[in-house]
């Protein structure tokens, strides 16, 4: 009876509710920690993949047979370019003939590059 007067039963009920709420919050915290660990693991894996891809990219860049863009000039094109040069055609005349022959637009700088490279 004294307990009811001083609210001991109410305090016990509040204490029990607080304990239950703490358990719920602890469970939620555990779930959040697991989710964080999974995300950290995923980030670690992605970082390793990025490092691997960067290393592979560096190795590919270092290969002497893979610099820059691939040449669109085939052996036949190079033969024609050299023949036109031998016949003393100007770069513009060579461009016109190559554009007509291939159906693709050629430029004087491309012709010059290919002829000086070879």
Description:
Helix content is 80%, strand content 0%. The chain is built from five helices and no strands. By secondary structure, it is mostly helical. Helix 4 (91-102) packs across helix 5 (108-117). The longest helix is centred in the N-terminal third of the chain and has 55 residues, at 8-62. The protein is rod-shaped and about 120 Å long. It has helices at 2-6, 8-62, 75-86, 91-102, 108-117.
Question: Could you provide a short overview of the structure?
Answer:
The chain is an all-alpha fold and 118 residues long. It has five helices and no strands.
| % residues in beta strands | under 5%
Mean pLDDT: 87
Amino- and carboxy-terminal Cα gap: 109 Å
User: What is the count of β-strands?
Assistant: 0
Shape: rod-shaped
Q: Which structural class should the secondary elements be placed in?
A: mainly alpha
How is the secondary structure organized here?
Layout: H1 2-6, H2 8-62, H3 75-86, H4 91-102, H5 108-117
Helix pairs in contact: 4-5
Essential attributes:
118 residues; mainly alpha; 80% helix; rod-shaped
């Amino acid at each position: 009876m004294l307990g009811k007067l001083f609210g001991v039963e109410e305090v016990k009920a509040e204490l029990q509710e607080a304990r239950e709420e703490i358990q719920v919050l602890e469970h939620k915290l555990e779930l959040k920690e697991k989710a964080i660990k999974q995300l950290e693991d995923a980030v670690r894996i992605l970082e390793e993949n990025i490092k691997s891809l960067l290393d592979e990219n560096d190795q590919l860049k270092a290969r002497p047979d893979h610099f820059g863009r691939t040449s669109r000039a085939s052996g036949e094109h190079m033969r024609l370019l050299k023949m036109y040069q031998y016949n003393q055609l100007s770069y513009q005349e060579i461009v016109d003939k190559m554009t007509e022959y291939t159906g693709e637009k050629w430029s004087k700088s491309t012709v010059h590059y290919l002829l000086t490279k070879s």
